[in-house]
Amino acid sequence: MRDEIPNIAKNVSGMRRLPRAILCSLKGYQAAWTHESGFRQYLIIAVLVSPASFYISESLTHWFMLIGCLVFLLFAEIINSAIEAVSDAVFPDYNELIGRAKDLGSAGVFTALLLAIVIWAVSIYEFFTI
Q: Are 124 and 56 in contact (CB under 8 A)?
């Protein structure tokens, strides 16, 4: 799969590097969607709740907070998935440090999820009580 795309860092710099970098990023999104159920779940939730952000936000800053916490959750899930993929490739058997790295990645996703829940819950509460 990676053999199709030459190393971005070799022989290309500046703005000419950008199309290849974008292609690699799109392949990353495709891999996340194809192989990571958590990413799919969070993305579907984000798509479903995002329209509500236009109604419950009180300002542009508030809207960015509502959308930003969802994007941050997706970011955390992508990074966690990358940690898990590299860990499984390097150490297919159990390794204590790899287990710790995976647990830390999972904790990062959980932290992002809690942040999103709190921001959305407070925003919805304020929308219906004010």
A: yes
Same domain, 69 and 119: yes
pLDDT, tens only, 7-45: 555 677 788 889 999 999 999 999 999 999 999 999 999
Q: For residue 6, what are the CA distances in angstroms to 1, 11, 53, 74? A: 11, 10, 41, 27
16 shares its domain with 55: no
Token pair for 30: 């495709």
Of these residues, 4, 77, 96, 126, which one is catalytic?
77
How many domains is the chain partitioned into structurally?
2
Give the predicted TM-score (pTM) of the model: 0.86
57 with 108, same domain: the answer is yes
Establish whether 13 is an annotated binding residue.
Answer: no
Has 77 been annotated as catalytic?
Answer: yes
